[in-house]
Write a structure and sequence with these properties.
The chain has 103 residues and is α+β, with helices and mostly antiparallel strands. The protein is built from one helix and four strands, in the order E-E-E-E-H.
Length: 103
């Protein structure tokens, strides 16, 4: 019997033209930075696309952990580390503003 349940209509096909290898860097305190290097379907580097740096941290709130994450406009790991605090502050401010709207 066909189902209208959205869980049964999700397309789980891997986008072979949008693959990345992920590396993680952390200070084991607050910062988690992921470098996503574009790769081809055979796993080799795809030099026609730029890599992506993603910032991530987790804060504790009265209702549990809050995940903050943002893409960093960085050309290397050093720039990513320098831009991490401002990006996380911006995401925290955005999350707090959204919470205030709910009240």
């Amino acid at each position: 019997m066909p189902s209208n349940d959205p869980q049964h209509t999700i397309d789980f096909t891997v986008d072979r033209n949008n693959l990345y290898r992920e590396e993680s860097f952390t200070d084991v305190k607050v910062a988690a930075i992921r470098r996503l290097t574009p790769v081809k379907p055979d796993g080799s580097d795809d030099e026609s696309r730029d890599f992506i740096f993603m910032a991530q941290t987790q804060l504790m709130s009265p209702s549990g952990p809050v995940l903050l994450q943002s893409i960093l406009d960085a050309g290397n790991l050093e720039q990513a580390m320098e831009r991490f605090p401002k990006a996380m502050q911006k995401e925290m401010d955005r999350a707090m503003a959204e919470e205030k709207k709910k009240e």
